[in-house]
Design a protein that fits this description.
The protein is α/β, with parallel strands linked by helices. It has helices spanning 9-14, 30-35, 51-62, and strands spanning 2-5, 21-22, 42-47, 66-72. It has a four-stranded parallel β-sheet, covered by helices on one side. Strand 1 (2-5), helix 1 (9-14) and strand 2 form a beta-alpha-beta unit. The two termini are 19 Å apart.
Amino acid sequence: MVIIDVRPKEEFEKRHLKDAVNIDFYSEDLDEKLKKLDKSKKYKVYCQSGARSEKVVEKMKKLGFEVEDLGGFTPTQSQT
């Protein structure tokens, strides 16, 4: 299982869930990055409030990924 944090890099670097990878929702190549992910893996996506993760989860489902929306992130959940 892969955890994806879709917040901007600056927010990700301050705090993120343990083992999360960052794919910035606002990056120009977001769609290309999503297409390159391994479809044999399961994904969980989160952001600050849940709005961006919801949009990314919708995109990933359309691309055929098995994905779950974790919603918003709170600093107390940080593992780094």
